[in-house]
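Example 3.2
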Amino acid sequence: QVLSEIPFTLVLFGILYLLQKNRNKFSLIGIGILIALLVSIRITGILILPALFLHTVFQNIKKDQQEIPFRFNELLFIFIPAIAFFLLLNTLLIPVPLSNFFGFYTAAASAYGIQLQQNLAYYTNQLGQLLVFPIPTFSIWKYIVAFMISIGWYREFVLKRSYSEWFTLLYLTVLLFYPYTSAGFRFIFPVFPFLVFYFFRGLEKSI
């Protein structure tokens, strides 16, 4: 479980990088295969699909001239290979009961229910401990960190609304609602580089 965060993060960043590059049909199919691998490592990787869909919807509405948005038929070259390769990998090549992918999360949700308040407090405290500078900190530091990250994320979302912003939003939403507060840093690890970036963007905006 712990070691899965590193390959998960590497594959995630690979996907986000390729999404910014030349989008021919072969590269889109390759992205789909990487998404299947991402979901196979950790089921939360499936969030890249709604992130990609939401990005496409809003970019087509916005019609930003700085970025040519995906056409919806192009998404099929990602979604179909992602689903097909995921099923191939997890049913034929390495047979795994598909219920195992969701079972861990549904079992915890059934046992403990939604713990939004506890999770919010826990991850706020985690971020306050992770983003500690070599200066004296104080009790409200964790709230300042969370606020700066929120400001930075919002600024990037308004300006760019990239895949990273959508994925981070969806990923953190799952963390806040998922009833498990013993993971420490490892659950935050895949999006931690983004959170650090948002923190400094928020700090820059506030100074």
